[in-house]
Amino acid sequence: MHRERDPGRLLRERLAQRPRADGRLLGRRLHLSATDAPAGTLTFDVTNSGTQVTEFYLLGEDGLRIVAEVENVGPSITRALTVNAAAGKYITACKPGMTGEGIRADFTVTESDDAPTVSQDEAELVDAAQKNYAAYVQDQSAQLLEKTREFVQLYESGDDDGARALYQVARTHWERIETVAESFGDLDPMMDAREADLEPGQKWTGWHLIEKDLWPQRATDYTALTDQERKTYGDDLLANTKALDSRVQDLTYTVDSIANGSRGLLEEVAKGKVTGEEEYWSRTDLWDFQANVDGARVGFEGVQPIIEEKDPELSQQLTTRFADLQKLLDEQKEGDGFKSYDDLTPDEVKGLSDAVNALSEPLSKLTAAVLS
Is residue 67 part of a domain? Predict the structure, then answer.
């Protein structure tokens, strides 16, 4: 990891894995080239020297709040995570296979007098970006709560057709602010865990459990939930959604967290939506795809006035590639929504994947450009 104002690389995160013959990890190691750094703009160079795709997190002292993250770091790949870190205690975590609590290590950010200076004009742009993004998240969270309440009522009353029609509509508001929701490490697994990603002994709750109950056609020997089970899981989802809405009211955002969130939402597209793995039962992945792109674009456009001052070429490149991806998504629309993921041809999936990759490359530079 290095200070942006220092050309030297002061800290490197490296994950090493020693697999057994059966492919399970026998030994794991997270190597930090330093365990502390002065406050300010920091960049973690995350190198995966193992055999599984991994992800890296900078967590708050409680080990739950996600300060910043970088996902989908493949073997032999190095990716950068840039963050403006205030003084305090943190925890770093690597997750081989992108599951579990990961391999963790303490990290400290010390006080520093070497704070960057900004002009009054830039300070006003920063303030506007922060306030606008907070308002956007609060609005999406409020809509999520409203639609979830309607969805749960339909589901618990046995109106499956109505619940199925509202499922992807409500999910849109979740997906637009997914990286914010994920920053609450306790709520996200209770609300959005997929069956395929459950840890041994983990209780399955949330959207995707209900999704399976509404679309069980791909399941083998599935037993439908009872009315009481529907009420239990529906009430649980609504209670967690209320908790999420309450928590986002007090959140504040920095320009680097907005930029990192934009990149993170596109990583969510690459990880599950473009592959059709997220909505395994309902096949409504394109709704999620669009919502993640919406959130990523809003994050970018919020800091775009800052980027136009610092790196106009990057700003134009991102504008163009967001438009290119949106054009491909528009081709998959049906009425007010999207076609089923199963109706995509292999060429269409590849085209969407290529467009996501083309956008990912410049989007990975956004945070560093904002903080430069």
Answer: yes
| Number of domains comprising the chain | 2
165 and 93 fall within a common domain: no
State both tokens at 69.
């993250």
Task: Note down the domain range covering 192.
Answer: 120-371
Cα separation of 324 and 318, whole Å?
10
Which amino acid would we find at residue 199?
A: E
275-297 in b/e burial notation, b at 16+ Cβ within 10 A? ebebbbbbbbbbbbbbbbbbbbb
Burial of 300 (0-12, 13-18, 19+ CB in 10 A): buried
286 found inside a domain: yes
Do 157 and 62 share a domain, yes or no? no
Q: Is 106 helix (H, G, I), strand (E, B) or coil?
A: strand
Element (H, E) at 159: none
- Between CA 111 and CA 28 the distance in angstroms is 32
Residue 115 lies in a domain: no
Q: What is the pLDDT of residues 12-64, one digit of tens each?
A: 444 443 332 222 222 345 677 788 888 887 888 888 888 888 888 888 887 77
Determine how many CB atoms are found less than 10 A away from the CB of residue 330: 10
Residue 351 region, left (φ>0) first, then alpha (ψ -120 to 50), else beta? alpha
Domain boundary among 110, 129, 147: 110
Q: Which two tokens mark 226?
A: 């009872």
First to last CA, the chain: 16
Q: What angle do CA 286, 290, 295 make, to 5 degrees?
A: 145
Contacts of 308 (CB under 8 A, 6+ apart): 315
User: Which of 54, 75, 110 delimits the end of a domain?
Assistant: 110
Q: Are residues 66 and 163 in the same domain?
A: no
The tens digit of pLDDT for each residue in 246-271 reads 999 989 999 999 999 999 999 999 98
